[in-house]
Fold this protein.
Amino acid sequence: MSTTTTFVQQNKWWTGGKSPFNLEYGKLMMWYFLMSDAFTFGAFLISYGTIRFSQNFWPDPNVVFNAFPGAGHANLPLAFVSVMTFILIISSVTMVLAVHAGHNNDKKGVIKWLIWTIIGGAAFLGCQAWEWHHLITGEHAVLMDGQLNIVGQTTSVNPWGDLVTNEAAIAALAKTPHETLVNLAHLSDHNITHAAAMKMNHDDLMKTVTANLDALHIRKNGPVAFGGYFFGITGFHGFHVFSGVVINIVMLIMTQKDVFAKRGHYLMIEKAGLYWHFVDLVWVFVFLCFYLI
Amino acid sequence: MIHPAFEEVTEHHHVDDATFKKRVRNTTILLSVITVIELAIGLAIYNIHKGENPSELLVLMFKGMVCILTLAKAYYIVSVFMHLGDEIRNMIMTIVVPLLLFVWFIGAFIWDGSSYKNLRNKYDRHFKESTMPVKHGAHK
């Protein structure tokens, strides 16, 4: 750092024949691309914020994101997303190490750390796939249009509205179709198999569901925009992670084929590294906007 | 080691391995600790919401703290991991100054959303009655 500072003071940067920013052209352009990408993500997140501030009710993230793979119906708010966050932080660290190995022209080091970074990226994508699947296929009892429905989180329906009083739920039960009652009976008490619920008559189903109302946590439908923003923004980020993994795989192949060794420098790894850190940076803000606040 | 691709770059940053490792390790620990604090605050907010009379002010303060911690994390990722802190000042400014647009961007749009909500609550009774959460006391 100190050597750079004295150098900056001594040098006339704009006299030509050298980069006035002391940066290789491709790396500088990567920075400007990332700046524009920051505006794209920023605009998405700000638009989400605008819609959220225009609503009287917004789902509590701790209610929406409380599942963990293999933990069944256990209520574990923030647990899974913290795993995802740490995966990205660690993969960012391994990328720093890959870039550093490149500085030292250490081919083996570059290969080793790139492989770890790729594994981290793939693990993150796997987590995101699980989370999306869990949200979309989830079964939640929701009071919509005066009757009860079983829905998951999609871009057209949001099951995370305000909690419904028992009186309102019982009133809606009378208008709920028989098939939904069968599913509600099974959902409210997993000891009642779906087949057993099918055999029950309408009145028994009503009684069973009424007795188990608390287990259903019946809610109104929430703001529809939630799904579109969540899937849109985490999807756009996931697409960046995916392209980052592809870029890192290309870097790995080029390193193994000695492309950079013959070139005499590993500047390309630095550019891939900048992109990868940016993906981590965006996640920090996605994590804030969707899961924490 | 002047290579053709390096000609435009006059000064190269050379950090010795020990300093580099120390810096990366410290930043990793820092980022992890901040994330753990953020998660703790997130859980605190969850427990406040579960309580009898959730204090909106306390929740808002916690959310503000998380925002500040996130900005700190962003600063360390950009400055250390992306080495922006090691570049020359003019270059840093070409990145940072345009990003100042976000100050207006966030403020104006959040304000707009909030104003739209207030207008609708005032003039659209159906919107107000159908979307305003009912006070349940304790949330399940």
Remarks:
- Residues 17-50 of chain B form the longest helix (34 residues).
- Helices of chain B lie at 17-50, 56-81, 89-99, 101-123, 125-131.
